[in-house]
Amino acid sequence: MKTAIKTDTNGRKKVINACTKPCPIEDGMRLIGGKWKGSILWQLRDKPVRFNDLARMLSGASKKMVDQRLKELEKEGLVLRQVESERPLAVSYQLTPFGRSALTILEQLKGWMEQHQTASYVPS
After folding, report:
1. Using an 8 Å Cβ cutoff, are 58 and 51 in contact?
2. What structural domains and CATH numbers belong to the chain?
3. 82: how many CB neighbours lie within 10 A of its CB?
4. HTH hxlR-type domain location, by residue (predicted)?
5. Cis peptide leading into residue 24 (ω within 30°)
6. Contact 55, 61 (CB under 8 A)
7. What are 9-30's pLDDT values in tens digits?
8. What's the pTM value of the predicted model, to 2 decimals?
């Protein structure tokens, strides 16, 4: 049912059908909306990428931040970590089918931003 705000005879407002738990949009934003998560998923869209190469692709993110986000994405089932060699340690990351399914949303977001960017919009 749709959420609505009703006003009673005394002028008091009451929410009808209020959300009692996070809605699917909030759940989705928790998965891909964290800082650098969308960018990491986007960089992994074509092929597996080694950690250092990925960190270079995300030039504004520290290696610690990239590592933290990759661990979160792996825990959430969006990214798969593969150890390529033990000595020296070489690790690459790739999208899982679940992670790949998020690319549609990211493509739409990218298109939306390209279409609506204005001179007054300044990213933070």
Report:
1. no
2. 23-110 (1.10.10.10)
3. 11
4. 23-121
5. no
6. yes
7. 888 888 877 777 777 888 888 8
8. 0.77
